[in-house]
Amino acid sequence: MDLVTRGDASDRRRWRAILAAVQARSHHPIARAFQERRAGDEPEAGPTRVEGFEVVAGQGVQAGVTQGSGPPMTVRIGRRDWAWESGADPGLEERLQGPGSRVWASADGRPVAVGQVRERLRSSVAATLEDLERLGVACRVLSGDRIDRVREVVAGMPGLADAPADDGGRRLDGGLGPLDKAEQVRRWQAAGHRVLFVGDGINDAAALAEAHVGIGLLEGAPLASASAEIVLCGGDLREIPEAVALARRVRDSIRANLRFAVAYNGLGMVLAATGHLHPVVAALLMGGSSAVVAWRAWRGGSCHPGERPRGETVRDTPDETRTVRGGPSRVQRLTPWIIPAGFVLQVPWLIGLGSLGPGASGMVGSLAMLAAWASTRARSLNPTGDRQPSGQPQGPPDPSTRWGPMVWGMLGPANLAMLVGWWADAGFGPVMRDGVCLCCSGHRFFGFGAGVPWMTLAMVAAGLPFMRRAILMWTGFWTRLAVAVALAVSMAGGMDWGATRALRWAGPGHPGQFLIAYAGMTAGMMAGMLFTCGVLEALRRRTR
Predict the structure, then answer these.
(1) Is the Cα dihedral 73, 79, 85, 89 positive or negative?
(2) 453-489 pLDDT, tens per residue?
(3) What gap in Å lies between CA 137 and CA 159, rounded to an integer?
(4) Predicted TM-score (pTM) of this structure
(5) DSSP state letters, 335-391
């Protein structure tokens, strides 16, 4: 800040001390510039006492000041026509040169000083405006500064050229008081716009209260924060477009859930009323409906809107850009959809292969919906499995800490492939025939080559891609091939062992032998996979 005062060097020190003491009571960002003390600024007249400090909205601040044993005076700091209402001092103003926002000061109505503050935009403003424009949010600037000063500050900002806007107003407007800003907000609202106002000064309080949503800044004036519905604590304005994007996702999720619930329950009531839906199945499907709605609602608010696609250029400041590399690949982006789909698609295969009745079908459907929801929620802790923090270099993934995708991939898509292979092994028909389950390779009913069933081959083919983290942590083609073979053998052997043990436990002719065999194969397959992965990880750590 540059400051010129009346009088000689001694008077300058005196007035700097007086203005700093008054501005110490203010929370306005410009007031902090007056509070900076320089060497030799301490006046000789003694300590400065400030009484009756008052903020005059849209004008400035005033207070009663007594310095040392001198007489009390009324000091005003703010707009020119208010602080210097008793008369101007052109000579004092001419001593200031260059751009900046000016602040005038008087003592008992007599001009005593003029300050010129050089402001700079927050580093996050450029990126914030770009993101808002990309979201289709029109941006306007309402300022108490002169319009030429507003143009200087926002020069080069996207979407803020000083030209007429679509709503008939201007994108930039200066010289506005608090009531002018509030009136402009009301005009936008009357035109049918939803207004989000961001401000940190006392002069913004009325507009913050008038807008549909007001956002204040924690380091701004307390009155502005108290008038706003939202207070931005970190000072990073890029949180604003992220909040807008998240709010839109939540709104769309609520609307979609309402439409889904109406259609789902309406169809269910018609089927139940006409006798086409068993009461037990209807009760289970009702629980499934609630689970699906909860899952969809969670998805609508869980995705961070700040995530950017791979290789997108991001502007942090007007002169500084960076490229985000190493975002999720296409396979990683599809995986969160493939795994839940694997659970859902198992339902018709289980019902058809096992010739399940209404009760068992409803139970299978509900469990599949629950598993699909649980897999999505578990993956939310690390959606891509190996993503690094935003903007950080992308190193190789650490497979030893990524067990979740392997487990869910085996339970979902790999099990689905196993059911398709089971259908092929059964001659492309039901597995349950005349009360007998063609249940597992232990029966040697199916065979391919040396007696390996298609269900095993399909399970291994679909499951190994989810084992890639356990395979790629090794170096060398032959080593990785040996690891893949070990995983395939352990999963196939575990599946056969699990089904055999489950059927022996249930005994011959058990009415639920199909689902028991399926559960045994799944448990054995998972046990074989986890055991082998654990051994491989321990071996890798010992040889590292």
Answers:
(1) positive
(2) 788 888 888 888 888 777 877 888 888 888 889 988 9
(3) 10
(4) 0.48
(5) HHHHHHHHHHHHHHHHHHHHT--HHHHHHHHHHHHHHHHHHHHHHTTSTTSSPPPTT
